[in-house]
């Protein structure tokens, strides 16, 4: 029998990759824990003292708190909306014989092929001119940004969810229909639980996209619906850059992403459909 | 329990017609098997009975009600799928109780019925397991359990044993038959395996290309197949077909093959000279004195019987005999054909004469 040797090369490679990935986060945290004077005196990558003043300033700022709430509402609202719509669209595309469904499927993703900047003007016109009732327009509103992100996230959700729904045997739908379920009960009781891993992946990826997005948020919001990513840029001024506060805001942007990921990661398991059909 | 009437049923996919006016009457409590090679419309017909496929023309009635436009759940049927179609995220008990849950039955009633079905199917100790934790045979029994808990008017089985190995298939065949004898529920069963059809059915419907070729009791189909297709499909090993012309020799009717061999007949009504196909089952040929000399190419001893393959005037012929015959390929053996067991078909139309 071959003895199990420690795979040193793999360990070294993974250690290096982990270091490359995690070091910027560590450095960001170090910067956020330093006062401005300390930051510019002696460059030091070690955390020698804990100075929470940057975090206090961020938390005490009603503006930044508002940006954080906006980011949370817009990202979560968009992720839930596109995941739900993407799921239903995929269900129809995989279950029904729709004429030209392959074309529909392909053209949905073309939205992601062009750079987002291409969509800026049309989206601006849509928000300010087309979807306008009296004085009310969708520009600089949370609902407006949720809908704007649908342009990019919905095709992504459909493409991400299709393999999941394709992998669920259609006999399960038929068995449930024969067992007395309505079309909605089939989706709710059978398809939805089995699609959970795919839904979780879609939810988190679309959430992260909306959470991190800068260009559209910077252009289509002023103050009311401004998000944390755009808030960061307010600390780069002509008189200087507030690195400590920016690092603290960045840490704040990281925390919700970690929480969301930890909440849904347990659902990201494969093989749930094993045993549904022969095997 | 209920009768099922299928009247002039047609099915079209776009411009392609795949079913051409099928008529089948299924009596109350009857076990009917739809049989035929794969892709010949039997599963489509079953799915139309279930309401999973639309009926393009004709009517399907269950218990006297035309169900063409009814949803599957309104038809009071239960179906067992080829792939089992168990819900992988539900336990065995939840799978079996699902139809009752959909009917909003009280929890206690669901538990009681699931327990009883599990007892019948010997699944009691597996009720808390998930489908992935069961063997193929156990999964198939769960699928049957899900069907029987709701006590439907009609059971529909779509090739339920085709995913099981040969040994398990035989035991499950017996279980399904016993289950039917116990419940007496009208059953429509689809298979491409003619042995399953012969051993399980009260009545067999042989289908080809979306048409019914013959309906009858298993032994009627075996003894009097209506055409070449049914004759070749029913029976294992398959019937021998030898082409020739009707003739009269020494005052006796025979079929004369191209090489002049006279195949014995009993009472053929057609005229001499007509091109016919002579059918004889391998088990109705014996080896003995006075037989037709056949050059043997292969011997297949199975222990209980021997299958002998040979050529008669260039045409393939095989005999299934109970005796242990050992020989060498190339030797000639006398094949004795029982003329009372011979079948005669018109070569051009394939219809029985």
**Major sheet of chain B: order of its strands?**
6-7-8-3-9-10
- What's the helix count of chain A? 13
- Helices and strands of chain A, in order, run as HHHHHHEEHHHHHHEEH
DSSP strand (E) fraction of chain A? under 5%
The CATH topology of the largest domain in chain A comes to MetI-like fold
If you average the pLDDT of chain B, what whole number results? 91
Task: Spell the H/E element sequence of chain B.
Answer: EEEHEEEHHHEHEHEEHHEEEEEEEEE
- Terminal CA distance of chain B: 39 Å
What is the fourth-level CATH superfamily of the largest domain in chain B? P-loop containing nucleotide triphosphate hydrolases
What is the CATH top level name of the largest domain in chain A?
Mainly Alpha
Instruction: Please outline the major beta sheet of chain B.
Output: 6 strands, mixed
Biggest sheet character of chain A: 2 strands, antiparallel
Radius of gyration of chain B: 24 Å
Return the CATH architecture of the largest domain in chain B: 3-Layer(aba) Sandwich
Head-to-tail CA distance between termini of chain A: 32 Å
Count every beta strand of chain B, where a strand is a DSSP E run of 2 or more residues.
19
């Amino acid at each position: 029998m071959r003895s199990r040797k420690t795979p040193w090369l793999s360990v070294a490679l993974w250690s290096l990759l982990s270091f490359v990935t995690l070091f910027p986060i560590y450095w960001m945290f170090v910067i956020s824990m330093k006062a401005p004077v300390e930051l510019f005196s002696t460059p030091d990558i070690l955390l020698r003292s804990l100075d929470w003043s940057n975090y206090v300033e961020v938390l005490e700022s009603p503006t930044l708190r508002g940006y954080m709430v906006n980011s949370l509402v817009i990202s979560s609202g968009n992720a839930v909306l596109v995941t739900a719509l993407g799921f239903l669209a995929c269900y129809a595309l995989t279950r029904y014989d729709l004429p030209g469904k392959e074309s529909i499927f392909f053209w949905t993703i073309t939205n992601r092929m062009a750079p987002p900047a291409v969509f800026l003007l049309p989206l601006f016109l849509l928000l300010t001119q087309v979807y306008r009732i009296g004085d009310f327009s969708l520009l600089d509103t949370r609902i407006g940004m949720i809908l704007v992100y649908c342009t990019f996230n919905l095709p992504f959700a459909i493409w991400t969810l299709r393999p999941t729904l394709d992998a669920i045997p259609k006999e399960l739908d038929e068995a449930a229909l024969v067992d007395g379920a309505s079309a909605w009960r089939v989706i709710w009781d059978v398809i939805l639980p089995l699609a959970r891993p795919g839904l979780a992946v879609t939810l988190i990826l679309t959430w992260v996209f909306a959470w991190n997005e800068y260009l559209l948020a910077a252009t289509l919001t002023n103050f009311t619906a401004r998000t944390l990513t755009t808030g960061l840029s307010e600390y780069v001024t002509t008189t200087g850059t507030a690195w400590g506060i920016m690092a603290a805001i960045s840490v704040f942007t990281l925390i919700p992403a970690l929480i969301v990921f930890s909440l849904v990661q347990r659902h990201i398991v494969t093989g749930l459909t094993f045993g549904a059909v022969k095997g | 329990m209920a009768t099922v009437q299928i009247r002039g049923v047609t099915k079209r996919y776009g411009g392609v017609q795949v079913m051409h006016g099928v008529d089948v009457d299924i009596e109350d409590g009857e076990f009917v098997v739809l049989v035929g090679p794969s892709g010949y419309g039997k599963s489509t017909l079953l799915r139309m009975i279930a309401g999973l496929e639309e009926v393009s023309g004709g009517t399907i009635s269950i218990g006297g009600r035309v169900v063409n436009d009814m949803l599957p759940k309104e038809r009071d049927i239960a179906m067992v799928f080829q792939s089992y179609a168990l819900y992988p995220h539900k336990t065995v008990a939840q799978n079996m109780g699902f139809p009752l849950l959909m009917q909003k039955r009280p929890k206690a009633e669901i538990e009681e019925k699931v327990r009883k079905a599990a007892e019948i199917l010997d699944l009691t100790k597996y009720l808390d397991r998930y489908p992935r934790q069961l063997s193929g045979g156990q999964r198939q029994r769960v699928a049957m359990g899900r069907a029987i808990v709701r006590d439907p008017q009609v059971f529909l089985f779509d090739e339920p044993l085709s995913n099981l190995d040969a040994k398990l298939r035989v035991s499950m065949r017996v279980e399904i038959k016993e289950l039917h004898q116990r419940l007496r529920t009208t059953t429509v069963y689809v298979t491409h395996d003619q042995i399953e059809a012969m051993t399980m059915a009260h009545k067999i419907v042989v289908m080809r290309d979306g048409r019914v070729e013959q309906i009858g009791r298993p032994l009627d189909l075996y003894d009097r197949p209506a055409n070449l297709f049914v004759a070749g499909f029913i029976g294992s090993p398959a019937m021998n077909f030898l082409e020739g012309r009707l003739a009269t020799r020494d005052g006796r009717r025979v079929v004369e093959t191209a090489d002049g061999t006279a195949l014995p007949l009993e009472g053929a009504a057609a005229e001499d000279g007509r091109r016919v196909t002579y059918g004889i089952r391998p088990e109705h040929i014996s080896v003995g004195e006075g037989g037709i000399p056949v050059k043997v190419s292969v011997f297949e001893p199975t222990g209980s019987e021997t299958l002998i393959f040979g050529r008669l005037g260039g045409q393939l012929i095989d005999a299934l005999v109970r005796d242990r015959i050992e020989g060498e390929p190339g030797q000639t053996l006398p094949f004795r054909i029982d003329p009372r067991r011979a079948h005669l078909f018109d070569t051009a139309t394939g219809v029985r004469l």
